## 1
Amino acid sequence: MIHQFKDEYRWLSNFYPCPLRFRGKRYPSVEYAYLSAKSEDKAWKRMCMEGVEKPSTMKKKSQYVALVPNWEAIKTEVMRECLALKFSQEPFRTWLLDTGTQYLQEGNTWGDRFWGVDLETGEGENHLGKLLMALRQQLAAQ
C-alpha cells in the first residue's frame, strides 16, 4: 500500500510538476489545471496557467474564486480528465503502472477527507487514490 504521495511517490501528487494541455490551455501541473476549472474568471485562469505562485498558495486562493455553478457535481470528472492527461505522458504512465496492484491512498495531514484520507483520524473517501487506481487499471488493459 502506498499511504502518502510524498518522498519516492511524490510524483503521484497533483502538485508535482507535469506540464499538460487542458481544455486548450497549458498548465504546469494537474493542480493548476484542476484549479483553473473551478472558475470562469479569466484572470484566475491566467494565474493558473502562469503557475507563478506555489500550488499550495493557489489552492488556498481558490477558496475565494467565484465557482462555476455546478462545481460540486463536476469536480470529480474534472480531476479524472486532468489525471488522464498527466498519466498519458511518460514517465508518469510507466511509474503508475509500476505500482502494480498496490492500494493508492492520498494520506494527508491537512484534513482533506474527500480527495484523500486524514492521517490523524484515518477518515476519508480517498477519491484521488481511487481515480488513480481506476486509471492504472485502464492503462494496464491497453
## 2
Amino acid sequence: MANWTANDIPDQTGKVIVITGANSGLGYETALALARKNAHVVMTSRSIQKGEKARADILKQVPNATIDVMQLDLANLASVREFAQAFNSRYDRLDQLYNNAGVMAVPQSQTADGFEMQFGTNHLGHFALTGLLLPKLLSTPNSRVVSVSSGAHRTVSGINFDDLMSEKSYSRYVAYGQSKLANILFANELNRLLVANGSSTRSMAAHPGLSNTNLQSNTADASGNVFERALYSVLMPVMSQSQAMGALPQLYAGTSPQAEGGKYYGPSFMSMRGYPKEEKPTDAALNERDAARLWAISADLTGVTYDELQPAMVAV
C-alpha cells in the first residue's frame, strides 16, 4: 500500500460506479480518477446544474469518459427512493457505491423527514440509499460499498441513543461527530451481514484526513461565525492536503485488490495527510452491539429493511 496513488487503480472498464455528492470536493476527485480508469460513473448531485458542470469539467480532461448525472438529495427520503428506482431501472449492475456526500457542523435544522440534518443526511440518507441499491450490489460479483467517515468520529464517546436527533441538546460539532461515528458503525455492520449471508460484496469505511475542500468554507458560511471563517481560511491552506490526495483512501477502499471488508482507511501521516493506509477507529466505532442497535433503529426510521440480508426463517 506504500505511496498508493490513483495511478494504481486497476482498469475499471465495464464497471458501473455511483458516487454521492460528486459535483465537488472528494466526490468530484473520485469521479475524475475513476473516469480516467474507464469506469462508467454515475455522479449524483442535489443540483443537476452543478452536476452537469462537474461532468463537463471531467470531460475536458477525459474526453472519452462515460458519465451519467442523476439528481439525489440525501436529506429527503422521497428523493433517495426516486433515485434508486431510476438507477435500478437504468442499470443492471453496481460495482462500487461511494457514500461520499455530507454536511458538516450546520446550524440546527431538520431534513424533509424531520431528522436532525447531519444525522439524517450523512447516515440515514446513505443507509436508505444503500439498502435500496442492495439487490444490484448483491447481483454484481465482488461489488463494494465505501462509506466516507471523518476523524471527527473520535470526538464523541458513542451514539447518543437517548437523543439521536439532538432535540434535548444541540452542538453542531457533536452532531457531526455522531453522524461520522454512525458511518463507521453502519459500514461494519453491513460487512458483517454480507459475510454472514455468503455474499462477495464487501463494505468498508474511509476518511480523507484534513483535505482542502469546500466543506469547511460551507460550514463557516452556514454558521455565520466570523471567527470560524477566519480560522479555516488561515489553517486550511497551511495544514490541509489537496482534494485529490483526500480522495485516495476511499479510492483505495473501493478499487484496490488488497482492500478488505470491515476495514477503515485514512491518510498515513497523523491521520491528516499522506497516502492511504489502514487505520484503527475508536472502540466506540467497533462496538458491535451499538452497530446492531443503530441498524435496527435506522431501518425503522427509514423504512428500508435490507430484506435480502435477513436471516433465513426456519419452519417449526
